Amino acid sequence: MLGLILSGCAFISLDAHDARKAGLCTDAAACEELTAASDTGALTCPASGDWLQVGLGEDHSCGLRAGGGIVCFGDDGSGKLDVPDDCYVALDVGQDHACALTHEGRVRCWGDDTHGQLDVPAGGGWTWVGAGRDFSCAGDGQGATACWGIGDKDQLAAPTAALERGTSGGFHSCGLDVDGEAACWGLDNYDQLAPDAGPFTDLSAGGHHTCGLAADGLVHCWGGNQAGQTQAPAVLYAQISAGWETTCATTPGGALQCWGAQGSHGHGIPPDIGTWQWIAVGEKHSCALDDSGVLTCWGYDWFGQTHPPD
After folding, report:
1. Residue 182: closest CA among 148, 159, 207
2. d(CA 154, CA 185)
3. Which domain holds residue 61?
4. Does a cis peptide bond (omega within 30 degrees of 0) precede residue 121?
5. Which of 39, 56, 141, 212 suits 101 as a labelling partner, its CA being 20 to 30 A distant?
6. What is the per-residue burial (b if ≥16 Cβ within 10 Å, else e) of 16-38?
7. Residues 167, 205: contact at Cβ < 8 Å?
8. Residue 10 binned pLDDT confidence (cut-offs 50, 70, 90)
9. Cα torsion angle, 236, 15, 149, 79, sign
């Protein structure tokens, strides 16, 4: 489990479903300072330190750093790189917008707002957030799930079940209940809403498919299979990421494996050397973090979306 440290206050978990625990402090003075800054809206975390999480849009990338700040790179159209100042614990990126959870459990979004992608739910207490193509969803793990943005394909029709974590893809979303079973909503033209039986420990939604990491370490995928993106090799995995028509995963030994579309710029062809902690797959590019903390990206790079800053 990854952690964030800010001025002596320990952010317990990067995982969106645990983000509600963020802000538990180990140093009284630092926590008093944190609370005061939060109350005035003056709290800002630096976008520096180790890479903890990366989300990929169509032509841009955003990464959460150990300092609690987020940095975005690539195409700056529609303000996609203009991250609001705050302290963050989790991140997800849609086609042309991004959303993140703050240390207080609030949702903040930036980028394109053509379909209301920035009309975030009020208040705090949110424990996960997922950004789809032109919509987003967030949940509190207790039964409240809110979705906003475009809803022409039922993307906003979230279930009433308590979902401990969730993920949003092209036009659909899926979440996990307390038993690790998946529930999905949105577009269903490729059986995206018919998940395999769990229990799962994690989910990742792609363009028209979703993959779940099962408790036994195998990956199960369902939905669109135009390029073989649901045909996971039957080996053990540690982490998964679903792109538009590509799925990639890390193995317990730190290898990368991808299936589905390789892409015209090779975003579905991972590096064949190195030991990797995690991977993120987008529509046309991918990024992975190696065991030394170096973030490597590859694929389509017209806007510099595969060149992360130091």
Report:
1. 159
2. 7
3. 1-132
4. no
5. 212
6. bbbbbbbbebeeeebbebbeeeb
7. yes
8. very low
9. negative
Q: Which residues pair with 176 in a beta bridge?
A: 165, 182
Please count the structural domains in the chain. 1
SS3 39: helix
In a domain, 310, yes or no: no
Beta bridge partners of 281: 286
In a domain, 240, yes or no: no
- Which tens digits make up the pLDDT trace of 124-145? 999 999 999 999 999 999 999 9
Where is average pLDDT lowest: 17-21, 261-265, 281-285? 17-21
Q: Which two tokens stand for residue 196?
A: 């395999």
What stretches of 51-197 show up as alpha helix (H) in DSSP?
A: none
Picking from 198, 300, 292, 291, the residue whose alpha carbon sits closest to that of residue 251 is 291
Q: What is the pLDDT of residues 61-87, one digit of tens each?
A: 999 999 999 999 999 999 999 999 999
Closest to 282 measured CA to CA, from 251, 242, 309, 237: 242
Tokens of 191: 């059986």
Choose the weakest-confidence range: 1-5, 183-187, 235-239: 1-5
User: In angstroms, what is the C-alpha Rg of the chain?
Assistant: 18
CA dist., res. 268 & res. 299, Å (int): 8
Distances in Å between the Cα of 205 and the Cα atoms of 87, 142, 192, 220, 229 are 26, 21, 9, 12, 11
- Measured CA to CA, the distance from residue 290 to residue 117 in angstroms comes to 32
